[in-house]
Amino acid sequence: MTESQVTEIRVTGENDYGVLVGRGILDRVPEVLGERVAKILIVHTPTVGRVATELRDALQGQYEQVLLAEVPDAESAKRVEVAAFCWQILGQADFTRTDAIIGLGGGAVTDLAGFVAATWLRGVRLVQIPTSVLGMVDASVGGKTGINTTEGKNLVGAFYAPAGVICDLELLESLPRNEVLAGFAEIAKCGFIAEPGILDLLEADVARATDPTTPEFKRLVELAIGVKARVVSEDFREGGLREILNYGHTLGHAIEHAERYQWRHGVAISIGMMYAAELGRMAGALSDAAVDRHRRILTSLTLPLSYPAGRWPGLLATMQRDKKARAGMLRFIVLDEIGKPRVLAGVDDSMLQFAYQEIAS
Ligand SMILES: NC(=O)c1ccc[n+]([C@@H]2O[C@H](COP(=O)([O-])OP(=O)(O)OC[C@H]3O[C@@H](n4cnc5c(N)ncnc54)[C@H](O)[C@@H]3O)[C@@H](O)[C@H]2O)c1
Ligand SMILES: O=C(O)C(=O)C[C@@H](O)[C@H](O)[C@H](O)COP(=O)(O)O
Ligand SMILES: [Zn+2]
User: Is the four-CA dihedral 75, 81, 82, 84 of positive or negative sign?
Assistant: First the structure.
């Protein structure tokens, strides 16, 4: 694929903004930033330093000041000390409410940049430019921003909508293959919870589906963003429906915490989805065939499906801090069938452990 159309997927409801998907589309940044912006802070990781510098150079003549904030890579960016480093730059450069922040990087950076934008002066303009598959299909799209704490994943944050999101598929050229595949955990998630067409595309030819240069890849990115945009448009603040986007995350986040945030999110979520599938089967509805489909698809993406047996007590303790828990009661998203998610609450610990035994290594 040499040329591609620019697709715009809109998030509506409480907020209204577009998610652009195309190739070589960073010239759309000023249009998405909108008028009146004078100063811009581009928050990025070292891995996309060259893109950040080129973007700054391209914007420099058009704005009063364009600054770079290079932050630590991956989950190390999602710490309060790093947010404070960004706040310090904004303070020292006198950023006002008409100035803007650009998040440029993987999901960890867009989560951090979003949180900084939400908190600086109680909210300044934010444009997200995700550079990983996961950032494009999920993290940058729905306005969930946040950082981790010692106690758990994403425990501090805000719902804060961007002015727009720019998914330039050319930026994926430098993304390592294992990161591409980790991002596909969230694409598969959208397939399991709402869009079985995603699963069909993955099953038809996983090599083409996961090759960022193919039309199939672009289609999958658009389908996954479409699922997220539809859900977020209906329930931005997670009053109910939005919880389905957390499929696989109750255990997945506990695994990330157990691994001290050294694992990729998508890798942990893969195990979490396999667990949720087993739980769905035990809760009485999900068929053996659907559970096997989870296993086949996640395996075809070379994602893991199991976690050591002895880790269960620690995982169970961490899951108590999951944001879906209510009054000390854990709640999971499970499927009755592919495309039919629901909340499963009030499950006793023995059933939870029984399901874990199915994925324990
Ligand atoms: N806010 C949300 O709704 C939401 C949704 C899903 C995930 N998340 C969060 O997103 C994070 C995971 O995102 P991720 O998988 O992108 O991880 P990440 O941000 O850690 O990026 C993965 C790795 O890829 C590198 N990278 C990114 N783009 C690159 C590029 N173009 N070239 C070379 N290297 C590149 C990064 O520097 C990093 O080393 C987690 O913190 C997760 O909690 C948030
Ligand atoms: O957008 C959502 O809502 C999601 O749950 C998407 C998830 O993929 C994402 O990992 C999110 O950050 C998890 O949110 P949390 O509220 O469980 O921290
Ligand atoms: Zn996720």
Answer: positive
The verdict on whether residue 218 carries a ligand-binding annotation is no
Q: Going by CA atoms, what residue is nearest to atom 40 of ligand 1?
A: 108
Average pLDDT for consecutive 10-residue bins of the chain (361 residues)? Answer: 78 97 98 96 98 98 98 98 98 98 98 98 98 98 97 95 98 98 98 98 98 98 98 97 98 97 97 98 94 98 98 96 90 97 94 97 93
β-pair partners for 152: 149
C-alpha gyration radius of the chain: 20
Q: Which atom of ligand 2 is nearest to the CA of 253?
A: 17
Tokens of 348: 């006793």
Q: Which residues are catalytic?
A: 122, 144, 186, 228, 238, 242, 246, 249, 253, 265
* Per-residue pLDDT at 79: 98
Residue 345 in marked binding region: no
pLDDT score recorded for residue 159: 98
Tell me how far apart the alpha carbons of residues 320 and 100 are, in angstroms, rounded to a whole number.
37
| Global ipTM | 0.99
What does the chain come to in residues? 361
Tell me the domains of the chain and their CATH numbers. 7-174 (3.40.50.1970), 196-211+214-359 (1.20.1090.10)
* Whether the Cβ atoms of residue 105 and residue 133 lie closer than 8 Å to each other: no
Residues contacting 160, CB < 8 A, separation 6+:
114, 115, 117, 118, 123, 126, 143, 145
